[in-house]
Design a protein that fits this description.
By secondary structure, this protein is α+β, with helices and mostly antiparallel strands. The protein has one domain: Spore Coat Polysaccharide Biosynthesis Protein SpsA, Chain A, CATH 3.90.550. The chain has seven helices and ten strands. A five-stranded mixed sheet has the order 2-1-3-8-5, with helices on both faces. A three-stranded antiparallel sheet has the order 6-7-9. Strands 4-10 form a two-stranded antiparallel ribbon.
Length: 238
């Protein structure tokens, strides 16, 4: 299975660290140059792009888009994308094989989460792991598995950078995407490292409050949409 790692070209030590961590699991990866948001001419962005995205958030968004484009262009059936500030579970190779063997029409499977995963289980894996359609935002893009069809859908539906990319993936139910999460996760953020690709903005209280209120308002819609999607998935796999 093809594995990509997003890495700023100047982050040589990060690249070496990830190469060692992958090698310990018998894995190899292709390193993709991450986009430096500070170097982007925002006048060239699609109309409707959010001007308040930080350079880090914008660079992260465009970096993930670039990866999806490569998956589509190379006609890869599926691929793994990792950021360069992660710790990998020894179970990662086995879990990837299990997911690839499932008869589950996913677009993207998140291998990481920044918080507890709560939602509706749609598939069982070995060692007590599950694939869960979250009805609470897992957040984070530290690692995921994307399908060919999923990459095409993501490129078609997430054209304009309106939010940080992990916020967009949290809204999978609104975008008509199937994005379950592996729980317990097999990719975790390395707390000893700070992300160089997608640093979050130091939002004002007003912006944080607005985002929180928006999520509260949509919570009931999300739960219903997730329930209906989970039911369709169960029907498709039985």
């Amino acid at each position: 299975m093809k594995i990509f790692v997003l890495n700023l070209e100047r982050a040589v030590e990060r690249r070496a660290l990830m190469q060692r961590r992958l090698a310990e699991l018998g894995l190899e990866a292709e390193f993709l140059p991450a986009v430096e948001g500070a170097r982007i001419d925002r006048r060239c962005l699609p109309a409707g792009s959010e001007p308040r995205l930080t350079p880090g958030e914008l660079g992260c968004y465009l970096s993930h888009q670039r990866c999806w484009e490569i998956v589509v262009k190379r006609e890869l059936p599926h691929a793994v994308l990792l950021e360069d500030d992660v710790v990998l579970s020894p179970e990662l190779p086995r879990v990837l094989e299990e997911i690839a063997g499932l008869d589950l029409p996913y677009d993207l499977v998140r291998l990481s989460s920044l918080g507890p995963v709560r939602g509706i289980p749609v598939a069982s894996l070995k060692e007590g792991r599950q694939l869960i359609l979250p009805n609470k935002n897992p957040s984070g893009t530290q690692g995921y598995l994307v399908s060919q069809e999923g990459a095409r859908r993501l490129l078609a539906r997430l054209v304009v950078p309106k939010r940080p990319i992990d916020d967009e993936l949290d809204l999978y139910w609104k975008h008509g995407l199937c994005i379950p999460v592996v729980s317990p996760c097999v990719v975790e953020e390395d707390q000893a490292l700070t992300s160089m690709i997608g640093v979050r903005s130091d939002c004002s209280h007003r912006r944080n409050l607005a985002r929180h209120l928006g999520r509260v308002i949509e919570a009931k819609r999300r739960k219903l949409a997730v329930f209906l999607l989970a039911r369709r998935l169960r029907q498709a796999t039985h």
